[in-house]
Amino acid sequence: MSTYQSTEIFARLNEALDAFSPSERQDLVKQVNGIFEFHIKKDKSPNAEVKIWHAEVKNKGVINEGPAPSTPDITLFLTDEDMVALAVGDLSGARAFITDRIGLKGPMMMAMKLDVIFRSLGMGPPKGAEGDLGYDGFESSFLILQIYEYLQVLSDEERKAEVARVKGVFLFNVKNSKGDTAVWTMDMKNGIGQMKKGKIEGLKPDIVLEMKDKDFVDLFMGKTNGQKAFMTGKIKVKGAIMLALKLDTMMKDTQEKIGFFGQKQAKL
């Protein structure tokens, strides 16, 4: 019997997946649309054994031991202990990435869907901050959660310094392809800063940014230049436009911290 606790975790995930109806499986595939490869280290020792599993949640929706049958969209590097913590809900994917407990090769947006897989199969962490901040049907929810987690890992003194540097209240109005609107408020003007879903009663925004969900994602991913997005009307700004430049700096700090592009090494 394998000494890997992850073996049982993947077996339980498969059992849950096998219980899905064909339509439920396709709904999960549509929502995730990615191939994951997990490189799981037995422990943190330098020469520890590494086992590989994959989750093909792009076409069929299957989870098996061994390398992915085709090029994975995302490869994750973590310990057996952290894999179990993710699965049983003691650790969220967002917190694991930002605290360097998971290394990755590939786009962070895909990695953020790991919690979606776990929850869909009856495992993983409770929604917590993601439930408080997220909107169904908005990729931007993953970005907002990352900014939230970025603030959470800072000390109170670091957060106060960030607030002193930014000095602004941001209101985001984001519209998806269905025409639905998501609203978030980021208060980087008072106390130690906060991110909230919706408007904060009694708090007037210094800047309001309106954009499409895809444009917000592209901006954060570096696919769209912020200045060009403002000039072409992809992002509409009302209020203190200079705060938009500070937002850009803060987003880049978040990207650097969580390794949003390319690769991020875990502290294994």
CATH-assigned fold name of the largest domain: Nonspecific Lipid-transfer Protein, Chain A
Sum up the overall morphology in one term: globular
Low-confidence stretches: none
Q: What integer is the average pLDDT?
A: 85
Strand proportion, as a percent range, falls in: 15-25%
- The percent range for helix content is 40-55%
Distance between the termini: 25 Å
Corresponding CATH architecture of the largest domain: 2-Layer Sandwich
The CATH superfamily title of the largest domain: SCP2 sterol-binding domain
Beta strand count: 11
Order of helices and strands: HHEEEEHHEHHHHHEEEEHHEHE
Question: Roughly how many Å is the radius of gyration?
Answer: 19 Å
**What structural class do the secondary elements suggest?**
alpha+beta
Compute the number of structural domains. 2
Number of helices: 12
CATH C-level class of the largest domain is Alpha Beta
Largest sheet geometry: 6 strands, mixed
Strand order of the largest sheet: 3-2-1-4-5-11
What is the compact description of this entry?
The chain is built from 12 helices and 11 strands. It is an alpha+beta fold. The two termini are 25 Å apart.
How would you characterize the overall build of this protein?
The chain is an alpha+beta fold. It folds into two domains: 5-126, SCP2 sterol-binding domain (Nonspecific Lipid-transfer Protein, Chain A); 140-258, SCP2 sterol-binding domain (Nonspecific Lipid-transfer Protein, Chain A), CATH 3.30.1050.10. Helices cover 43% and strands 23% of the residues. The protein has helices at 5-18, 22-32, 80-88, 93-98, 108-111, 114-120, 128-133, 140-153, 156-166, 213-221, 226-231, 242-258; strands spanning 34-41, 50-57, 62-65, 74-79, 103-105, 168-175, 181-188, 194-197, 207-212, 235-239, 263-264. It has a six-stranded mixed beta sheet. This is SCP2 sterol-binding domain-containing protein. InterPro entries: SCP2_sterol-bd_dom, SCP2_sterol-bd_dom_sf. Pfam families: SCP2 (PF02036).
